[in-house]
Amino acid sequence: MSDAPEVNRGLVTPARVVIGLCLAAPFVAMLWVGSYSRTDPQFIGIPFFYWYQMLWVLISTLLTMTAYKLWQRDQRARASQKGGAAE
């Protein structure tokens, strides 16, 4: 009975929580239309509605890059723990 394979479930780590927040933030910001459905303040003649959304394109890129780098670091840490435990 003790020969059953061990099920390795994913752990909720602080890094993974940050990754989730980085990926969820742009969706929340864009789905909360009431926060940006206005024309003022304008930026170089562009209404707020448009430049706010374009700003989120840049912010989303940065957040996605951050999430990816955190994921890579998390995977390397897990691989080194797995390799260290096997030796």
How is this structure best described in words?
The protein has 87 residues and is mostly helical. It has two helices and no strands. The protein has helices spanning 14-31, 48-86. α1 runs antiparallel to α2 (48-86). The radius of gyration is 21 Å and the shape is elongated. The mean pLDDT is 84. It holds the Pfam family DUF3311. InterPro entries: DUF3311. It comes from Streptomyces nigra. Keywords: Membrane, Transmembrane, Transmembrane helix. This is DUF3311 domain-containing protein.
Query: What gyration radius follows from the Cα positions, in whole Å?
Result: 21 Å
Question: Beta-strand percentage?
Answer: under 5%
Q: Could you state the oligomeric state of the chains shown?
A: single chain
Would you identify the regions where 5 or more consecutive residues have pLDDT less than 50?
A: none
Q: Gap between N and C termini, in Å?
A: 25 Å
- Overall 3D form: elongated
- Summing up helix and strand content along with how strands pair, one would put the structural category as mainly alpha
Number of E-type strands: 0
Largest sheet: none
Instruction: Sketch the topology as an H/E string, one letter per element.
Output: HH
* Overall average pLDDT: 84
Which percent range fits the helix content?
55-70%
Number of helices: 2
Pfam family, one: DUF3311
InterPro entries: DUF3311 (IPR021741)
Keywords: Membrane, Transmembrane, Transmembrane helix
Protein name: DUF3311 domain-containing protein
